[in-house]
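User: Can you predict the 3D structure for this chain?
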Amino acid sequence: MTMWMPDRESLTRPLHTSLVFAMKEAIADGRLAVGTRLPPHRILAYTLGVSVHTVSKAYEELRRLGLIDGYVGRGTYVLDATLPSRQPFLMERDDRGMIDLSISRPLYDTIHVEKMQEALARLPENLSHETYLACRPNVGLLPHRRWGVKWLARCGLETTESAVVMTNGVCHGMATALASIVRPGETVVTENVAHHLIISLCSYLGIRLQGLEVDHEGILPSAFEAACRHQEVKALFTVPTVANPMVSLMSEQRRKDLVAIARRHDVLIVEDDAWGPLIENRPVPISALAPERSIYLTSFTKCTLPGLRTGYLVAPENLLPTITGRLIVFGWMATPLISELASRWIEDGTADQLVSWQQKELSARYAIVTEEMAGFDWSGHPNSLHFWLRLSGGWDAARFAEHAKALGVAVAPSQPFLTPNSPKVDAVRVAIGGTRDPVRLRQGLALLTKLLKRPPEPLLQTL
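Assistant: Here is the predicted structure, written as structure tokens:
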């Protein structure tokens, strides 16, 4: 049977968009049947007389739409476009797809869809007109900040609504905080294997970022002290609770030691606690130990569901005017409707329920990781969204990630997490929430362990 092919004469510019449209129609009406293996990029490009780049862009868009999927060595296939939309589960629509263990995302199931649908259906009930008419105060509506105070207490931080600023998640808060307290050319210190967004953010803002040596708890006090003695350090940015990507958990004593150094050298602290609500019996936040010099950040995206993009920034009173000014520049104010949803979930207990659900599911995944990764050098936590796998046997991070992808497993190599002065680290971050199916997770981990047992070799690419 001859596979359907687009008519070159029917394609208009931009060619990749026209090709996407033609293939979407063919999939919808059955001319491209479910399970059909599509031609390789070069062959389709040659047949149509277009560039390989054009075909690649079209395939990527179709993959983003959930209409095709595939990976190196097995080809690209048509998925079942007649299935009803199962957002946010599109990435798991077909068993030929990549086992994605590269993005540190929370687990989710029908409970999250049901809770959000219920919340949206009830949203008009007692909804203040301020949530859709007000454009001030820029720090967020007072009722939302009051409910934030309750959630922050759950996180171990006692504060008042006057110190709380609503954000569209931690990333928004990070940009606002750093731009408020650090000028271009000044120095921020952090873990030398750090949250990748702090690396990008400092680069964009023209801030000098210096990585500090770490151990299993995080930043070494001696490294922080040495950095402060040799230069003027404006701020310390840290993720003390199941740090991304190394999953280190800083003890309360270590937090106190860092606070003492920060006070001695007059260094401000920015604490990213996005993962904190998931961790039971954890030490108090650094910001609770040094509220006069700390900016605290947390959100719901890692502990409940990714789409609830609202969070809280807590800062000393003297920093709030500058923070408010930067907030206005970066987005005016956090979206009140999303903040309303978060507040209602705090009020009715849904947020706590979803955190508990996440903790239970992550613990079950951690048990799978413990079984499959026995004998290998890795670190994790029962409530973490990922684990850190250190490589040996001649493997470097980039090559290992490349070989894993060829086997159908995506992991995150260490390079994006390394600060400019960091030595090379041969490790990968392996997320456990990329696939909803624990069987698929186990399969992905099994493929990784098989790869670890093999010596590195060149990866042959098929055209």
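Residues 196 and 417 are 5 Å apart (CA to CA). The first helix runs from residue 15 to 28.
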